[in-house]
What we know:
- Keywords: Repeat, Ubl conjugation pathway, WD repeat.
- Helices cover 10% and strands 42% of the residues.
- By secondary structure, the protein is mainly beta.
- The protein folds into 2 domains: 5-57 and 79-101 and 112-373, Methylamine Dehydrogenase, Chain H, CATH 2.130.10; 375-411, Elongin C, Chain C, domain 1 (Orthogonal Bundle).
- The longest helix is centred in the first third of the chain and has 12 residues, at 55-66.
- It is globular.
Amino acid sequence: EEPVLLAELKPGRPQRYDWKSSCETWSVAFSPDGAWFAWSQGHCVVKLIPWPLGEAELCKTSERKSQGGKAETWSRGAAKEKTLECGQIVWGLAFSAWPAAEDGDTDPACAVGLPCLVLATGLNDGQIKVWEVQTGHLLFSLLGHQDVVRDLSFAPNGSPILVSASRDKTLRVWDLSRDGVLFPSGDTFLLSPGRQVQVLSGHVQWVYCCSISPDCSMLCSAAGEKSALLWSMRSYTLIRRLEGHQSSVVSCDFSPDSALLVTASYDACVIMWDPYTGEQLRTLRHVPLYSMLDSSSEIHTSSLRSVCFSPEGLYLATVADDRLLRIWALELRSPVAFAPMTNGLCCMYFPHGGFIATGTRDGHVQFWTAPRVLSSLKHLCRKALRTFLTTYQVLALPIPRKLKEFLTYRTF
């Protein structure tokens, strides 16, 4: 089943041609509960869109579009949309849902008065602005990076730990529960690096992407280099370099059980790794669609831009410069579905599955259907076990070899 375009959002402002008003959608993000969607629509603006009806509302929007209605008319709740004026080109977005403090509980996020849902935005001048989602108010800005903040990743366990990746060739780890020193700057407040936990240095090129594993034990970072770096989130030290690509690695993502890591590169390949051992498990090569249909065609490849896992961990989505969205089944070497898109830059699955959001170079966001799958009992058991067992712990179990191969994703 090929992906179907459900809806397309366009910037609400006329496009300017000054480089300072960059219109690219470099980042899209869903809140962990799927209730909010954010996109950097260019012009130094981020749009926050409430998501009360999810895919059902998308289908209604798609029907209106097919009947000649305006695609920009999102829903009856459009009045609740928020526009965040960031003042700089926005490159990275990340939501964090922090648990509300209970009676007698001193949750670190709520203890300092932070809301339970925030959005961090990485900006062109090196700042990270943190916003309250419900009101759209700016809480504070994090200072420390010396160049563009290209990507952001919150710890998936709900703790107020944020990792930022920058063109200054570093990653920085922030603890938003820590006290910082606020000082006024115009109409907002800037926060000195008092909340900065660690600076991770090791890349020699711009850092494009960072991803924290769902079990919060590892961090992967990708830069304009042929290798990706894997870090410990406990000691903030380098675990290993993942070497195997022939060109710059630009995107990375962990599987929902933390047992797999995928990296995408300008060499038109996605490599699937075992992050615990550093072993390459599979390479997915992006051959143009016409070359796959016509074996006599000369094969040309196209640089990748983004890769992401589906929520259940059985599919991957990739966006490449050949203007195709591809969906891959975990155990197959060829895509199971294609969709033509315009100059794609990023992609992200809806947290509950069913569709994918993609950002484009012209500032648009497109929403596509994605395969829905009922996970087998075998996969659910594997996913549950691998959530807390490393590859080495699985290999040490007194179980048959074939079962070990299945649990470590070596039965492809």
